[in-house]
Structures
1.
Amino acid sequence: MATAARSAPRVAVLADSALDGDSRAHRVAAAAVAAGYEVTLIGRAAEGPAGATGTAPAGVRLLRVTVAETLHRRRLQRPRPGLRHVLAYRSADSHAFRNALLTAHAALLASRGAELDVIHRPLPLKAGARLVHAGSRFRHMLRRAWTALRSAQYRAAVRRRATPGRALESAAATATRLLLGKRCWRRLDPLLLDLEIAYGPVLDELRPHLVHALGHRTLGTAVRAAMRAEGTGHRVEVVWDTTAEGEASRRAAVARDAHERSYAPLTDGVVTVADTYADRLRERHGLPARPAVARNTPPYEPLPSPPPPGVRDRCHLAPEVPLLVHSGAAGPARGLLTVVDALPKLYDLHAALIVPDPEDPWIRTLAGRAAELGVARRLHVLPYVPPAEIPRFLSSADIGVLPVHRLPDRQVALPARYFEYAHARLPVVVSDVRVLARPTLEIGNGEVFRCGDTADFVRAVGAVLTNPRRYRKAYERGDVLREWSWQQQAEPLIDLYARLLGPRRPSPELSASDAPVALA
């Protein structure tokens, strides 16, 4: 494994994720190592103790940290009952205690009933004992009904607390912003403080020369670590890497906006994934320079012919069986219900969903819908693969699909999955979201369908399956894949590093696919 020289500046890539499926974190770390920096990739410990290691790009130190989420979970576990849930338990401990006590009482009653059956007593004593036992069972039934009612109200209050989308919650978030100003994020999103507790000491110990903060949640942690380091005489540059992401509620949106306004002006450089969003960030936060743009694309590399088995082999399908894939997180806004509803009309077509969590509730909903339609055997759910392997893994499929709905955050930049389909040389079928439809129609690498229209989705898939070679040839025209390569996209990022830390000599032992240089 190649390693950077001891004198190389230290770069910490900080992500609020478990890293296994975080392609952006892996690609940033690989580009920094290829440019000659000493890189530590920091993320969450999904399982096991903090510090457990896993797969990382060559030359990158991987550090996983346990994020306890104590402050975040307390808010969810101690919901405010309000007028709709006046009987709800006031905390998770109370809820668990009462249900455990009820279970223990049920066990005692069952044991007492068995005792009355097996132990001989005179008839009057036995009749009295059974009468007392019947009274105990009746009291237990009342207690069970009362506990069930309070538990149901508690669970409803927790669900309402977890997704605060109602008018009262929105008004409370706005009022908190008016009272506390930019500091309101501390109250509205305690998870940001949990990240400080977990990641802050790690950054203090590493003493990097540059922190690359991925996403809006790590921004404040990185800036505060830089301030503490500067107080000890050690200069730390902060690069903020962000993209447009939709928030689940007004509360989360207000907290994010306040957090970004507090710390974005204090960064030394900003990176994002689209020109339009770069302009928006500069205007919103009064940045002195336009953010650098580095789209989240895979490195360019030729694919072998025939393509490796990959996803087709994992689904146990023969080469002639048509297969479409969707790679990415699951959720109602992803449009996967349209894919499942179309399967009965697409005959032998199989669909593979590559998701971070195959046990996700929405995945179970999709599987139930597939069972109702009689196509359960043609729906395959697979876990993520390492980011470096995604294009090769997908290349044995026939179509890549992105049936996302028209949401504001979908209108800003092409998602990473679109580029991964392209590097897998897959024809695509995408919804008519503008940012997806425009390049697809310009390049001719797929078909566009009306968002949420199952019949039109069936038409688009059928068109691609009729002549897939036509759509694959679109990738051979011009330099579209070379432009959509991490080698090309990483150049602005490494230029920013060089301005902040000074240029480095690329490591000669790393592969050419990792080096952030333009391809001839």
2.
Amino acid sequence: MFEAKFQSFADASSSEDSAARVAALRAELKRQNLDGYLLPRADAHQNEYVPKSAERLAWLTGFTGSAGFAVVLAKEAAIFIDGRYVIQVRHEIDGRIFKPIDIAETSPAQWLSAQGREGARIGYDPWVHTSGQIERFAKAAEAKRIELVPLERNPIDALWTDRPPEPVGPVSLQPQRYAGETAAAKIKKLRGSLKGADAMLMSDPHAICWAFNIRGADVAHTPIALCFALLPKDGAPRLYIDDAKLDARTRAALEKLLSVQPPAALIDDMIDAGKRGDAVLFDAATAPVKLIEALREAGGKARVADDPAALLKAVKNKAELAGARAAHIRDGAALTRFLAWFAEAAPKGGLTEITAAEALETFRRETGALRDISFPTISAFSEHAAIPHYRVTEKSNLKIGKGVYLVDSGAQYLDGTTDVTRTVVVGRASRQLKDHFTRVLKGHIAIARAVFPKGASGAQLDAFARRPLWEAGLDFDHGVGHGVGAYLSVHEGPQRISKLGTTPLQPGMILSNEPGYYRAGEYGIRLENLVIVETREIAGAERDMYGFETITLAPFDLNCVDARLMSAEEIAWLNAYHAHVRKTLSPLVDARTRRWLREATRAI
């Protein structure tokens, strides 16, 4: 009945060969007179979702998370992860070889400085590190005179005999009715951000796809084409992309706007720019140090700063916002059909984490508009729900019985990208669960109802979502919200709601609102909607004020809510939200789902 076409549940993690692979790496390093190696979980663009050919960290260590870093020395090795993966990493790596370290407590540079021997030579691939990363390592290594050595070839690639080929997914043109602005207009805006530079090297494929109104198929779940671009202050931009990705129609359309070049031409163009003494703007977050050093060594000036495209892309235009709203109505109907089905099927037994994920993807495919899921579905029952970025596999798959089920999922439609999390209970909710769930819900509502002045950043809002948990001595280890793209990445910067979110929020930005709570070994709770920053008119206001429009549509599980913990304002918000969900989605779902929806969105 149900099936998954856009995700696999095969166990991609394997540390069985880790010992042999680390031994082979150490032998190769010794052959090159090196004492260690730096291995990030990254490709040449610092993407969160990377092609299979760039999964070097997983190949060596077995760790499959979306963020990680390993340092391998002659005798010791460590893998660094953030708070999302402290549980997962211990299940996936061989602890006899790699020591897992929370990066918030010790950075890779600090560890190398402490563990590396005096005068050690540490190799790295300059294509998969930014200049900032290498500068931090160099500074930390100064005391021991540790030398960082850029390598011509990644040593992992020499050892990985069955490494997948580089992707050549087809590039498509994003229709104007969804893009809302021509590529020529976007290029003009970007040129206005050069600030005296002769050119800008674009290294973030999301920014390139946005700027040129194209989409690709090189990585799972994110419609980007892996490529670079050079935007001069005058003349046609240059797009460095594998020609196999372009059909005749797409190439002809692009060549009206820019010059298509093979990827191998990029280094030569950097060297030529250097010889002319050009000043080139590089993105601090994604530009490979290889390109920056090629320009500098040839005599050019590298200006490493924030990518001006990031902020322009983050502020959505009217067409993109209209598309996002339409996508969320469509997606909300599919998710609500799933929740209604789950409420009936789960108590009967027989469901598993995988069958639930397959069912949700199927309901989304039945919209007829699904292009892909926006990330692998987090379908987590019981103790697995306490792992924020849990990924179900055939090996880990749990049967769903009485207890807590968390589903974090999203979709890619031509008109928008969705990301939503709901936590539901099968059977009766305990008093403790209701307390924790309601505190998370109160934090969610605090963000949804927030009003803040122009210039405020996500860091200033982060505590709004945590206060109800803090009052009970509880917290969670991830940010409250991340930016979301327009049929691009489900995780988009620079906007975010977190302790590190310093970018001022602007009308038109889309973010998630997803506080959580995780009780290791028992259950996890996360409640996520997407919101749009909007202006707010307040009588007598002395400053421009902003707030949020919630665009995700799906019921929260009222069986987990303790209304006694909520204020009148919070109850009013929840009732109004549920009334809006019911009114908007009822015409789009079948009669059985409508009956369930009426009860699921009842006023409390």
